[in-house]
Amino acid sequence: MKKSLRELCTAIAICFCATGNLFATDNQFNTDHTMDKNLNLIKEWDKVFPQSDKVSHSKVTFRNRYGITLAADMYKPKHADGKLPAIAISGQRFIEHSVDKVARLREMIDRKELSTMIEVDGGVNLETGKRLVDAGANVLVAGNFVFKSPDPIQTIKDLKAL
Fold it and tell me: Residue 63's closest CA among 102, 15, 13, 29?
């Protein structure tokens, strides 16, 4: 039981580090002006969808409940006031150094003989997915690639075959 709990905590921490998942317990965001410089966040538009003039965009960082600093994009409708619901946005570009991170994570997991799975989300397609699986990823999240394909069923089959 104790080993299973440790493996679960390790899996959660690795998933948060390896992916762009956003789970915040409160609104302790740092905006562009105060973000952690160690994360090397880029300022230019890095999405596959066009930037809207109706929405303000900023990079934010925050600490999750596990003490891990996460980075995300915050989109807020211009001229909106008060508390707004959170919405997930799809269409992140693939981050090249993710492959190296996955390989390092896989090495750590294997060295400790854990059964932790590695999930990657962001810019996954057949080419990047193959590289990620070869590096050690177990789970690929490919929303944009699947839903914009002419044949989503076949695209899913192709991804499962990697």
Answer: 29
Q: Tell me the Cα Rg of the chain.
A: 17
Please identify which residue in the block is written with the tokens 């932790």.
116
Q: Which two tokens stand for residue 143?
A: 């929303």
The token duo for 112 is 């400790």
Question: Which residue do the tokens 């997930």 mark?
Answer: 88
Residues paired with 76 in a beta bridge? 56
Q: Which residue from 72, 134, 66 is spatially nearest to 98, judged by alpha carbons?
A: 134
Token readout for 103 is 């390989």
CA distance 9 to 21: 16
Strand 119-121 and strand 69-77: pairing? Answer: unpaired
Give the pairing type, strands 69-77 and 55-63. antiparallel
User: Which residue, chain included where needed, has tokens 């946005």?
Assistant: 89
pLDDT digit string (tens) for 40-70? 777 778 777 788 888 888 888 877 776 777 7
Nearest to 123 by CA among 146, 157, 102, 105: 146
pLDDT in tens, 73-118: 788 888 877 777 666 566 778 889 999 999 999 999 999 999 889 9
Local structure of 28: helix, strand or coil: coil
